[in-house]
Amino acid sequence: MKNLTGYLQGLELFEPLPEDMIRELARKFTTRSLEVGDVLFRQGQPSDALYIVTEGLIRIVIAGDEGEEVVNETGPGVALGQMTLIDMEPRTAGAVAAEFTILLVLSRDDFMEAFNRLPVQNQIQLREISRDLRLNYADILRQVPLFHDLPDEALKVLMNRIGRKRLERDEVLFNRGDVGDALYVIDKGWVKVIMHNAEGEELTLNQLGPGEVLGEMSLVDEVPRAAGVVALTETEVLWLTRDAFIEFLNEYPAIAQIMLRMLSQRLRFSISYIQQAIELSRKVAEGDYSFAKTEIEKSQSQIIGRGQSDESRVREMLAAFFSMVEGVQKREEELKAQVRMLSIQIDEVKRQEEVESLTGSDFFAELKASAKRIREQDDED
Amino acid sequence: MSKIISVHSFRGGTGKSNSTANIATILASRGMRVGVIDTDIQSPGIHILFGLTEEDMHHSLNDYLWNKCQIEDCAHEVTHKVGGDIKGKIFLIPSSIKPGEIARVLREGYDVGLLNDGFQDLVDAMNLDVLMIDTHPGLNEETLLSIAISDALAIIMRPDSQDYQGTSVTVEVARKLGVPRMVLIVNKVPQVFDTEDIRKRVESAYNCKVAGILPHSDEMMSLASSGIFSTHYPEHDITRTYNQIADILMS
């Protein structure tokens, strides 16, 4: 990071600070390095510093039922702890180095020392920003692909229609099969996307955290939820109902264009998988099962780690396709074995030779005669 | 009018003794007096299925062949050992399981003609409706004799290329001996196979009736050689098939 001052000026929290104060604060940053596995901070600890990753990779983890679960990864250029610095709110997640990592650190004390020197008016402004950072609907909404290109003005109108919902840990946001009539954006906390298999066991398809979007398409088509969503931690979500969204559309018809573009992108995404499915079907028809299985495994590994509902459906399709290929292959092998076992091959020449060697003896001739005699006797009896 | 039924297979391990014991038990349960004679002197085994131990054996077929006793002295009633509701009776004529006696038979041989007399005498002495002969695999002289004097012959085979050639020889030889009734039993068939398809293929390959097709059964395997399947599982499809085989052999 060549220009820390410039970087800090771009952070919301530093916006109301005079430039000389930002320069002063930039000089207060220290560096810290972490080896793989070192803990930067733990979930629940009060925030006491602002971190900026300059090199390496930080893994964001939350406590789950079975130990820690990785919910996100952040690399260079990302600031951690902006939202909670002033209020010392507890960390919503822990952070662990996934690689050798170098960070710039600004302690809360240094920040607050500068903060306290600000005129009261600026202090209030900063507190508001800090609060807004946490409640910043606009920024959060920008992360929704559907709203990404929306003009500020339209976004402000949309913000008025947004609600906020708080979930306790383990609380259900919605169940599979519920009518999808709202979009959710996670503001704080973490949720899991779940399904149940045939045996009724819960399967976690994905974990989603701050900024991630759930049920975007339900604003358009109102189909039942393909999977359920349950809070992993205390969670806050912003939500927009379909009715509110339709009203908004009436006010801003231009957004329809943006939506069309987005939908066509999704269509392309789906079509690319349909094309792949066609190609794989051809390979299966030709009996090249191993090629099909390798390709499917490749695609599955490419998709894992992203959080879009379309992709989870593609993943389902790939899994179904994979088990189909395995099923067809198994059945074919069984049939082949059956044909192999059932082609009853008898060497006629060898058979005649063996029969003659057995029936050519005197013993056999006598046996045959006496057997005949016994039978005739029985018939007379 | 009594019947002699031989059960044969060209190779070992086809389930010959098991099938013999089950068919014998089914016939006895229908009220018949059934004799079962183990002529597999070199490797006897059917006594285990009927729960007969070495201590229980007072006389064996070996004693008869060495002129130590009459054939009927070797008959052990095992009706009560098979379980289930048996209206008739089952008599087992075991081969000796003493290693020394098995070795002696192999070393000295015996008069095969005595076997034939023994079969006839046994039927008369025990007033048998049916005598079932559990034969030695392959086609040695005593096996040929058993086949020759039988009213019905059941040849057991597996759907296995190793069984196909030998079975064809047995069928041909038995035909030359003029056995009045000959049927095939296909045993240990993997459950994925289509039984009707197997029946057609085997019947056309050997020009011989298939009396029953028995699947490879885990229950049968778990029961192993410690009991009679048809009395343990009276409602099982396999028991139904044994009944059909018994009907065909007796008709």
Identify the overall geometry of chain A.
Answer: elongated
Total domains of chain B: 1
Order of helices and strands of chain A: HHEEEEEEEEHHHHEEEEEEHEEHHHHHH
CATH level-3 fold name of chain B: Rossmann fold
| Contiguous helical run count of chain B | 11
What Rg of chain B is obtained from the alpha carbons, in whole angstroms? 17 Å
Walk me through this protein's architecture.
The complex is a heterodimer of chains A (381) and B (251). Chain A folds into 4 domains: 132 residues, Jelly Rolls; 113 residues, Jelly Rolls; 85 residues, no CATH class; 33 residues. Chain A is 48% helix and 22% strand. Chain A has 13 helices and 16 strands. In chain A, the strands form 4 sheets. Chain A has a 4-stranded antiparallel β-sheet. A 4-stranded antiparallel β-sheet of chain A has the order 2-7-4-5, with no helix packed on it. In chain A, strands 9-16-11-14 form a 4-stranded antiparallel β-sheet. The longest helix of chain A is centred in the C-terminal third of the chain and has 34 residues. Chain A starts with a helix and ends with a helix. Chain B has one domain: Rossmann fold. In chain B, 43% of the residues lie in helices and 18% in strands. Chain B has 11 helices and 8 strands. Chain B has an 8-stranded mixed β-sheet, with helices on both faces. The radius of gyration of chain B is 17 Å and the shape is globular. The mean pLDDT of chain B is 90. The chains are: A alpha+beta (381), B alpha/beta (251). At the A-B interface, helix 11, helix 12 and helix 13 of A face helix 6, helix 7 and helix 8 of B.
Sequence-ordered SSE layout with sheet pairings:
The complex is a heterodimer of chains A (381) and B (251).
Chain A: H1 4-9, H2 19-28, E1 30-34, E2 39-41, E3 49-55, E4 58-64, E5 67-74, E6 79-80, E7 94-97, E8 101-107, H3 108-117, H4 120-135, H5 137-142, H6 152-159, E9 163-167, E10 172-174, E11 182-188, E12 191-196, E13 202-208, E14 213-214, H7 218-221, E15 228-231, E16 235-241, H8 242-251, H9 255-285, H10 289-303, H11 309-342, H12 348-359, H13 362-380
Antiparallel strand pairs in A: 1-8, 2-7, 3-6, 3-8, 4-5, 4-7, 9-16, 10-15, 11-14, 11-16, 12-13, 12-15
Helix pairs in contact in A: 9-10, 9-11, 10-11
Chain B: E1 3-8, H1 16-29, E2 33-38, H2 46-49, H3 61-65, E3 76-77, E4 89-93, H4 99-108, H5 112-125, E5 130-134, H6 141-148, E6 152-157, H7 161-176, E7 181-189, H8 195-206, E8 209-215, H9 218-223, H10 229-232, H11 237-250
Helix pairs in contact in B: 1-11, 5-6
